[in-house]
Amino acid sequence: MTMPEQSLPRIGMLYLDHVLRFFDKSNFKGWPDKIEQVVYHWGNDKQRFIDEVKRKKINVLIGNVPATAYETFREIARALPEVRFIPTLDSQFCNKSKENVTHFCHKYQLPIPKTKIFYQVEEALAYINDTQYPKIVKRSYGPSNYGGYFVHKIDSAEEAVRLFSEKRYYPAYIQDFVPMKADIRVMLVGHQPVCAFWRRPPEGEWLTNTSQGGSMDYQNVPEEVLELAVRASKAANAEYWACDIAVSTDDEYTILECATAFAAFPYIRDWIGQYLMWLLAPQRFDKPYFAHKNWEELGKIDSSLLRTMRHISFGQASHSTDTGEYAPADEQYSLLETRHVRGEEWPSEAWNFQDMHRLSGVNPYNRNEHGAVGNGQTQTQINQPDSFLDTGIEDHQEVTVADHHSLPGAVSESKLEVQPEPDAGHLPEPEQLVAFFQSVKGIGNVLSQEIVDTLGVSGVLYALEHEPQQLTAFRNLKQKKLEAILRCWEDHELVC
C-alpha cells in the first residue's frame, strides 16, 4: 500500500503596485500547484488585502516589502498569524532603513562604521559642532543608496548643517568616514554565499557604485568577507540575503548595508526559488546544490548575457573511494535550512523610532543670524519620515506636512500616536541618564551608554514615561531589570 503524498502549502506571490517584482512564477519551476498572486494597492487597502489572502487560503506569502509599506505589513502579518511570510518581517527589518541596519549589527556584534543617530535636532547640532571630520551622512530611510545619490561625504560642521538644511534627512544618520579601497557585495541563499563581487571606486574617488563610475570584478573575494556575510545572514534568519562589506585601506571589514531586498540576476532568483521549494516541501523536491565560488567563472560572462541567463544548475562531484581514502568533508559554506520562528524579534512598538520621534514645524536646521529658528518670513516645514505615507511612492523628499493631505491615497496606517515633545529647556544631560542607569542593580556601564546613545535623551525619557517595554529590546535587559529600572525611576529626582 502506497502512502498518500503530503499536500503542498498554497503559495502566494506578494506584489505591490508601482514596485518592481523580484519573483514570478517561473522562478518556482516545477511547483505542481497553482501559485496565487496577491497585489497590495496602498492607501486604505490593508483590510481588503488581508481578506483576499484568507479567501485564497494562502499558506505562504513570498516577496519583499518596500520601506514605505513595512509598518503596514507588520500589522498585516499580525492579522494573518497562520500565514508564513517569506522573508519574515523580522528578516526584512534591515530593509526599512539604515538605522535599522545599525540596530541589527549592534545587537549581533557585527562590525560597522561608528554611527550616530539623532532624532532631536539640538542633539544632532551639538554633535556636528563637536565631532571630527570627515564624516558620511546618509539618508536613513529606505533600503538602498539609490546609486549613492543619498550618501554624502562632509568635511566640516558648516557643510553638515548646510546639507541637513537642504536635504532635511530624518533622523540625522552620521557615520565615521572609512577610507576604502573597495567594497564587496555578497549574496546568500540559505546562508550559503552564491555570488560575490568587488566594487572599486574610480581613481581619486570614494563612492564604489557602478552608476558613479565604479568597476566590478568577481575574483579572489577574501574568505573573511564571506564568513562575515554568513554571520549576518544567520543572525537575520534570512532565507536569502545580501551584504555590502567595506574593505578599508588597512584591510579591515565593516558592514555598510544588509537586507533581503537587493538587485539580482534572474538566475539567482531561480536559485532562491529552488531553495524555497525544497524548504517548503522537502518530501517533494531535492536540496539544490550551488557550486562554491561559482561567481568566479560565471563572472567571466558578459553582463548583458548574465541578465538573461536562466535555470543554471550544477552537478555535485562524486569522489571515488576505490583505494580506501575517505571522501572529503562538506564544503565550508553549506546550504542550510532556515528555521521558521513564530513571534517577533523587532516589534514596531519598540523599534519604529521614526514614528515615535516625529518632528514638526519649521526646518530647525535653518538658523538666522541670531541663532533663532527661521527668518520670520518663510518657514520651511521639516521633512517628516516617509513612513507616514502609504502611497507606494518610495522617494518624495520635498513633500511637506501640508502636502501630505493632498497626495492621492496618502493615508497613514500606523496606530502610533504623536507624543508631545519634552520641554527642551528642562532636559537632563546624557551623562545624567547614563549615571541613572548605572545606579540600577544589574545595569552596567556598557549597557547604560548603549541605551542613551541609541535612543538619545528624549527617546530615553519617552521610553521611561510611555513605552518602557521598548527597553527590553536591548541585549541582556529583560523584564526583571526593566522592573528595577522603573522602580528607581519613580524614586529618582531626575525628571524632565
TrEMBL record:
GO terms for molecular function: ATP binding; metal ion binding; ribosomal S6-glutamic acid ligase activity. InterPro entries: ATP-grasp (IPR011761), ATP-grasp_RimK-type (IPR013651), ATP_grasp_subdomain_1 (IPR013815). It comes from Photobacterium proteolyticum. This is ATP-grasp domain-containing protein. GO terms for biological process: SOS response. Pfam families: RimK (PF08443). Keywords: ATP-binding, Manganese, Nucleotide-binding. The lineage of its organism: Bacteria, Pseudomonadati, Pseudomonadota, Gammaproteobacteria, Vibrionales. Residues 102-285 form the ATP-grasp domain. It comes from the Bacteria. GO terms for cellular component: cytoplasm. Gene3D superfamilies: ATP-grasp fold, A domain, ATP-grasp fold, B domain.
